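Whiteboard transcription, Tuesday session. T.W. wrote the structure tokens on the left side:
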């Protein structure tokens, strides 16, 4: 039976590339999925799976999500009440956390423990933003991260979840300090990197998300 995957459009950018990567993952794995980029709260409620991309500052993305009437409530209903599989990407993952401290302290969705804080590498030669390819190391088994131990993925960020709960952090990356590359619980998972820019490793994660039955 075909599933609908809602990619939430709240003005944060990179939606089409995320949608195209999901379409590629579904096609390659012969999964009957329809990828829908939408800002319609009813479409989010109806969706079988939900993806929240994000580019930019934490506060701007949260404001964008909250500015579309009914959209934030529909997201919470779909993910929390209806327990639909959910994937947050980059700032979309950060919004899952309790708060972000970029340009002041701003409340997140509160689905994951911890705050999103600025990267501060011990090695002064490591530039911020952290931009480029790095390896990730899963910290415990999860259906969506299977086969990604040591995978090279693509990051573009200055802030990250660095004090997350040990049972919610699923993979870490080291960039002068350790931070959560993937985190999640129950029916939700987030990736700090960009799967849509991470070639085969990214497609693997997206395919496994589309197959995931939490």
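and on the right, the sequence the group agreed on:
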């Amino acid at each position: 039976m075909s599933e609908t995957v809602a990619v939430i459009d709240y003005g944060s950018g990179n939606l089409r590339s995320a949608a195209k990567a999901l379409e590629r993952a579904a096609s390659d794995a012969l999964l009957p999925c329809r990828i829908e980029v939408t800002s319609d709260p009813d479409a989010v409620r109806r969706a079988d799976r939900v993806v929240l991309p994000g580019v930019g500052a934490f506060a701007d993305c949260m404001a964008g999500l909250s500015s579309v009437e009914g959209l934030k409530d529909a997201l919470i209903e779909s993910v929390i009440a209806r327990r639909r599989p959910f994937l947050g990407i980059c700032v979309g993952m950060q919004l899952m956390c309790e708060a972000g401290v970029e340009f002041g302290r701003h409340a997140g969705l509160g689905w994951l423990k911890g705050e999103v804080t600025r990267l501060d590498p011990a090695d002064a030669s490591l530039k911020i933003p952290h931009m480029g390819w790095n390896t990730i190391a899963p910290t415990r088994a999860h259906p969506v991260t299977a086969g990604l131990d040591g995978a090279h993925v693509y990051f573009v960020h200055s802030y990250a979840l660095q004090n997350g709960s040990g049972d919610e952090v699923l993979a870490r990356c080291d960039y002068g300090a350790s931070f959560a590359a993937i985190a999640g619980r129950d029916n939700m998972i987030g990736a700090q990197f960009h799967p849509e820019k991470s070639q085969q490793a990214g497609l693997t994660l997206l395919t496994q998300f589309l197959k995931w039955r939490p």
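Someone added at the bottom: The CA atoms of residues 10 and 68 lie 7 Å apart.
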